[in-house]
Amino acid sequence: MSTFDDRVALITGAGSGIGRAMAVAFAKAGARVVACDIDKESAGRTAEEIGEAAVAVAADISDEASVAALTEAAIGAFGRVDVLCNNAGIMDTMALPADIPVELWERVLRVNLTGTFLVTHAVLPHMLRQGSGAIVNTASEAGIRGGAAGAAYTASKHGVVGLTRSVAWAHAKDGIRCNAILPGPTMTNIATNASFDPTGAARLGPVLALGERLAQPEQMADAALFLASDAASFVNGAIVPVDGGWSAA
Ligand code: NAD
Fold first, then answer.
1. Active centre residues (catalytic)
2. Among the atoms of ligand 1, which is closest to the Cα of residue 183?
3. Residue 1, pLDDT score
4. Domain boundaries, the chain
5. Residue 35 β-bridge partners
């Protein structure tokens, strides 16, 4: 019997990078998977790769109505959600606090922090009804340090760390655990087409250089798999760097 037999995992940002690796890893461990992405085609490709144990749902985590439809689709497909991986996220431009455009600040906070909250808020009632659930949030090194990204991304990921602890504490007695992984630099598509603010990039360069060893998305998925599994049954509110030692520097 596999670890996640009879369990359902909802993964956001499942069309690419870390989310895609998580979807594949949870399916291999026996879960049925709801592969959510704002990009319909890429979510579909992930679900197709997994086969009949997966459904693809196109949803924008930053939009409340879209998140309601996502949760409804997940429950409609499989009847429950045991694991929620709040993984979808976007970068900023590395702009420093003095330079970041307000619209970019609002978009990054909306997707990375409010989006994580909206999906959690929509899925929690189902986990409460079940009396069990495991949430794994994808934060970032930028969730615990000031020099790993621009102001908006850094603030958003610190927010994800705070939300992780809040959910962990508030719902521990309900059988629900909530933990976060903090990926170091990982080979994904997140920086594809990104344009970086030269001042910010130069200021952050020395910190980023410390974490220059690139991870594979599967290494993030393995950590998420552990945190969501019964092997981590007493791990709650943990903020886990998965960075090859970068945060230890
Ligand atoms: P990625 O760009 O390869 O994948 C992210 C996926 O999220 C994409 O498929 C994208 O379409 C989707 N997405 C974006 N906005 C969305 C929205 N509003 N609703 C639903 N889906 C949306 O990037 P990745 O590196 O795999 O990123 C996954 C997570 O890992 C993010 O939260 C990111 O901040 C975090 N992270 C990545 C790194 C890294 O080096 N790659 C480091 C630290 C943290």
1. 153
2. 43
3. 58
4. 8-244
5. 11, 56
Top mutation candidate among 10, 18, 70, 220 for ligand 1, by most atoms within 8 Å of CB: 18
Q: Would you say the CB of residue 13 lies under 6 angstroms from ligand 1?
A: yes
For residue 225, list its beta bridge partners: none
- What is the assigned CATH class of domain 8-244? alpha beta
For residue 105, what are the contacts with CB-CB under 8 A and spacing of at least 6? Answer: 92, 151, 152, 155
First to last CA, the chain: 40
Distances 188 to 1, 134, 183 between C-alpha atoms, Å: 31, 25, 11
Neighbours of 103 (CB within 10 A): 8
Q: Ligand 1: distance of its center to the CA of 194 in Å?
A: 13
Average pLDDT over residues 193-212: 88
Q: What integer pLDDT is reported at residue 192 of this predicted model?
A: 86
Beta bridge mates, 56 = 35
Interface predicted TM-score (ipTM) of this complex, two decimals: 0.99
Predicted confidence (pLDDT) per residue in 57-109, tens digit: 999 999 999 999 999 999 999 999 999 999 999 999 999 999 999 999 999 99
Q: How confident is the model at residue 213 (pLDDT cuts 50, 70, 90)?
A: confident
The dihedrals phi and psi of 185, each to the nearest 5 degrees, come to -55, 125
